[in-house]
């Protein structure tokens, strides 16, 4: 098993690395077993929502990493999984846009990180899926008959998805304004 590089999730969990996000201040020591349990618990919640197990674990390991980025080897070490399992998991997450891959100048290694606005990205992905569902459902209304019980259920589904799709961007905007206020930054348009 590879030794985690300085700044990996396992290294940071032990409190032996400085966190760049905290101005190089050392990260307080953490209970490795508790961190692993949290990763597994959060990954299980994502799995219950349909995310495959290993990509869920990789995503959570990246979200919980103080370093903000991990290599495939660091992920494999942190998750006690094979490098091959990491390859498939990161490929899946990159394709969905839930993680980004970046190189390092002078190195052949790739690092993976979660986008700064990952939850907004997840909502956007879900919103695109709802737009697709809405289009398909809309086609079903005349097929089933607009006045039939099935047609009325499909019509109600279309209305629901249209409503939620219209509201989600507003919710994201409100969140960005709230986060800016919490962070002490100017709020958009104010």
- For the record, what CATH class of the largest domain applies? Mainly Alpha
The CATH fourth-level homologous superfamily of the largest domain: Winged helix-like DNA-binding domain superfamily/Winged helix DNA-binding domain
| CA radius of gyration | 21 Å
Number of domains: 2
- Helix tally? 7
What's the overall geometry? globular
Question: What do the pLDDT scores average to?
Answer: 86
Number of strands: 5
Predict the CATH topology of the largest domain: Arc Repressor Mutant, subunit A
Share in β-strands: 5-15%
CATH architecture of the largest domain: Orthogonal Bundle
Cα end-to-end separation: 53 Å
Order of helices and strands: HEEHHEHHEEHH
With strands numbered from the N-terminus, the spatial order across the biggest sheet is 3-5-4
Major beta sheet, specifics? 3 strands, antiparallel
Low-confidence stretches: 1-16
Please estimate the helix content: 55-70%
Structural class, from secondary structure content?
Answer: mainly alpha
């Amino acid at each position: 098993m590879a030794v985690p590089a300085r700044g990996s999730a396992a290294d940071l969990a032990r409190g032996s690395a400085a966190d760049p996000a905290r101005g190089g201040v050392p990260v307080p020591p953490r209970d490795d077993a508790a961190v692993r349990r949290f990763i597994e618990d959060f990954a299980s919640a994502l799995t219950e929502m349909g995310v495959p197990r290993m990509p869920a674990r990789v995503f959570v390991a990246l979200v919980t990493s103080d370093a903000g980025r991990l290599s495939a080897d660091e992920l494999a070490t942190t998750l006690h999984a094979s490098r091959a399992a990491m390859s498939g998991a990161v490929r899946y997450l990159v394709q969905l846009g839930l993680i980004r891959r970046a190189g390092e100048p002078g190195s052949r290694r790739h690092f993976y990180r979660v986008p700064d606005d990952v939850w907004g990205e997840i909502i956007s992905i879900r919103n695109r899926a709802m737009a697709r569902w809405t289009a398909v459902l809309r086609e079903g209304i005349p097929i089933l008959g607009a006045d039939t019980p099935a047609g009325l259920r499909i019509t109600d589904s279309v209305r629901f998805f249209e409503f939620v799709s219209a509201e989600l961007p507003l919710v994201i905007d409100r969140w960005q304004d709230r986060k800016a206020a919490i962070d002490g930054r100017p709020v958009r348009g104010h």
